[in-house]
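#lab-general

N.A. 3:47 PM
ok so I finally got the sequence cleaned up, no stray characters, all 119 residues accounted for. can someone with queue access submit it? mine expired

B.Y. 3:52 PM
send it over

N.A. 3:53 PM
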Amino acid sequence: MFIVHSHGPIGDIAELKPGFVTIGSAEDIVDILGNASYLNCNSVIIHSDSFAAGFFDLRTGLAGEILQKFSNYRMRLAIVGDFSHLKSRSWRDFIRESNRGIMVCFMPTLEEAISALMN
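B.Y. 4:20 PM
back already:
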């Protein structure tokens, strides 16, 4: 389910294996958070193709529900993928604002996601 990236004093990062599961609800995330916590990870990387299509439609509220779970559990999240297909101004603004914060970031590569979570 996870690939664990060890990063010494900053903590470990759990990367959800691509294609392992489709995340379609906040309940799915609670399971992922529980497993990552059990592995003593303080951050999670999820590839964008692991999310159900509704995640990328802000009107569904799914993205908000899922990201709120990470905030509640105080676990950082990096979502890795190509987001150029998201033409919505709201999504572009959401990604830009998320990347300015520390809890959630959207990165094009795994390496950039790990780097962002290490800061």
